[in-house]
Amino acid sequence: MKRFWSLFFILNLCLCSLTLQAQAEEPKISEQTQECIGCHVMATPGIVSDWEKSRMAKITPAQALQSPEINRRISVTAVPEAMANVVVGCYECHSLNNASHKEAAFEHNGFNIHTIVSSRDCAVCHEVEADQYSHNIMSEAYANLMHNPVHKMLVDSINGIQDFDGSKTILNPHNDEITDAESCLYCHGTIIKVDGKVTRETALGEMEFPRLKGWPNQGVGRINPDGSKGSCTSCHPRHSFSMAMARKPATCSECHKGPDVPASKVYDVSKHGNIYKSLGTKWDFDAVPWKLGTDFSAPTCATCHTSLIVDSAGEIIAQRSHQMNDRSPYRLFGIYAHAHPIKADTSIIKNKAGLPLPVELTGEPASEYLIDAETQTTRRQAMQKICLGCHATSWVENQYKRLEHTIEQTNAMTLTATKILATAWEKGAAKGLAQKESIFDEAIEKMWVEQWLFFANSTRFASAMGGADYGVFADGRWYLSKNIQEMADLLELKLALGQDKAAAEKKPAAKK
Ligand code: HEC
Ligand code: HEC
Ligand code: HEC
Ligand code: HEC
Ligand code: HEC
Ligand code: HEC
Ligand code: HEC
Ligand code: HEC
Q: What pTM value is reported for the model?
């Protein structure tokens, strides 16, 4: 009898694994998608094979919904019936919400499709992620730059073409979408617009496509033809749509590496970054939920800012967050570091001086637009709970004390630079807002920008995330101190020259 049951068990196992294999080998693909693939294995073979390797090509939404909540990778409770029992293929994504894509939707070999699959389309199955992302500052990165007159002035002063008239430079009016698209908007995101239609000869005959302007682009605050914001492909490149990839620092480093935003450089040389580089190949980047200590032994960007983390007993340490600022009490980036803005759209902020900035030029916060002390505490605790999975309380508290101290110190060094610049404006050694001129185009103004944008930011980022060099000699305190001296010298020189010039102009007048 025992033997019978064990034979039965073995037979059952075989049958099970056969059906499982059959399921794994033959995921159900919709008829429409089969047609897309029929052509696209020839037209764009790279896209088809990326998709074939992705999870979405292997698991139907109905199967995904059966996973226990903690392991689930789709966040809706139900998907439209037509999509539930087929894998998410070309047709399923590229035909979603066609009507809202307006003129970006087009007739393509018998199908109505659109090329841009937007964050709103992904929301059909990943509603929670898309909703959280809309509270992430990244989703507003276009407006935060281009709809803020002060920030736009910065864009113009960097991307505008300059002339020289024999004695002084002239900054031409700037309105060059192509330059903006590959400069600031590469990361912040473009507006994608449809600019008529184009008929092209393809490998499979003549076809008509909408002509997309501002594309390609994968900026985090991209404005899509359906009006939705952001591009999920900035961290989950199509068509692999990999979560493991988004958990690795290389993904974030694409945009977080410049002297203005050196999070990735800082992380690279931090102890955490070192451990990741040395041991990371042995970690499990695919596990959901992500088990601290078991799956990884030091944090990546995602661990601290985004991921769902559990301990070895399966207790939740941190919830997944595509909002990504719900563990950040501060906005470190800026003229001065300050409490985090309440809304992702920072272009709505007005300080007392009437400028669209979260601080006065003298550093006082525009508090009504910023989170209160209580929210700061909740967010600090949420981040610290992650640290405490691997560190003791005193380690973590001392580390935060240093960060808070560094915020004060770097804000003070920005204030000193601002006083020098304000004196230059007052005494006519430079032209600023009072003269209705750019505050970013003259030499002394550019030095002031470097003071906060490069050196203060770098010092703060190094303090928050490790990487001592970036707080000292590589864009850190050395430059914070040197730059102030150079600004003061330049001001002195300009004022002296100004006095000489005024005196020279006065002399002939006196002779008359
Ligand atoms: C008869 C063959 C054929 C079929 C069927 C087909 N495609 Fe295409 N598709 C092409 C070719 C060829 C191109 C052009 C590639 C190029 O630009 O070089 C193309 C281009 C595209 C583009 C890019 C459009 C742009 O803006 O440049 C998308 C997106 C696309 N196809 C999606 C799909 C989807 C989704 C399906 C199924 C619903 C599908 N295709 C079915 C042949 C086909
Ligand atoms: C700035 C980078 C970034 C952007 C942009 C981003 N994600 Fe993610 N995403 C991540 C990270 C990091 C993880 C891993 C989270 C974890 O470890 O729990 C992730 C995980 C996921 C997962 C798998 C986990 C799950 O079950 O939710 C889905 C699905 C997902 N993202 C969807 C989206 C969608 C949809 C968008 C666009 C609205 C988007 N993501 C935009 C970084 C990003
Ligand atoms: C999960 C949704 C999803 C699925 C499934 C999907 N796509 Fe896409 N596809 C996208 C997204 C997102 C983009 C990026 C558009 C953009 O730039 O924002 C894209 C872009 C494209 C492009 C233009 C990219 C380029 O580099 O020119 C083509 C062509 C395309 N897809 C074809 C396909 C084909 C063929 C399949 C099936 C094998 C497929 N897609 C499956 C979401 C999807
Ligand atoms: C029709 C439903 C549907 C749509 C639309 C959809 N997905 Fe998914 N997605 C799924 C399913 C099903 C899975 C696999 C879930 C699982 O493995 O349990 C998945 C998994 C994922 C994952 C996790 C992959 C991993 O490696 O763990 C990411 C990231 C993701 N999708 C991003 C996107 C993005 C970005 C879009 C829009 C361009 C999108 N999805 C559109 C159903 C969808
Ligand atoms: C395609 C470019 C791009 C990628 C990739 C990217 N980011 Fe960002 N990120 C930005 C931009 C641009 C902003 C600033 C938006 C603004 O201020 O308007 C930003 C802002 C942030 C902020 C500040 C949020 C705040 O509320 O203060 C954090 C944190 C952040 N990103 C983390 C990440 C992480 C973690 C990853 C990788 C998983 C990542 N980013 C990937 C471009 C990117
Ligand atoms: C390589 C990617 C990248 C490029 C290119 C880029 N930025 Fe950014 N930008 C970022 C990131 C990342 C942040 C967020 C930093 C943070 O919060 O720590 C940011 C934030 C900003 C902010 C703050 C906006 C807010 O929320 O208030 C301004 C202003 C800004 N950038 C100006 C510019 C200008 C001007 C250009 C072009 C000359 C530019 N950026 C180009 C990545 C980029
Ligand atoms: C050990 C945890 C940890 C890791 C790992 C980490 N960060 Fe941070 N990050 C922090 C803390 C703490 C802060 C400061 C919190 C605040 O801004 O309130 C911060 C701040 C930031 C900011 C500044 C947001 C602002 O206020 O302007 C950005 C952007 C950022 N991190 C991106 C990244 C990127 C990209 C990586 C990976 C290359 C990374 N972080 C790795 C903990 C971490
Ligand atoms: C998954 C485990 C893990 C998490 C989570 C983690 N760390 Fe670490 N951290 C480590 C390990 C391991 C080291 C190396 C310790 C050593 O070599 O003595 C380290 C080193 C550090 C160091 C370097 C100290 C020095 O002087 O070199 C600092 C600072 C630090 N962590 C702060 C933090 C903070 C703050 C957080 C949360 C925002 C955090 N860590 C989250 C594992 C972690």
A: 0.95
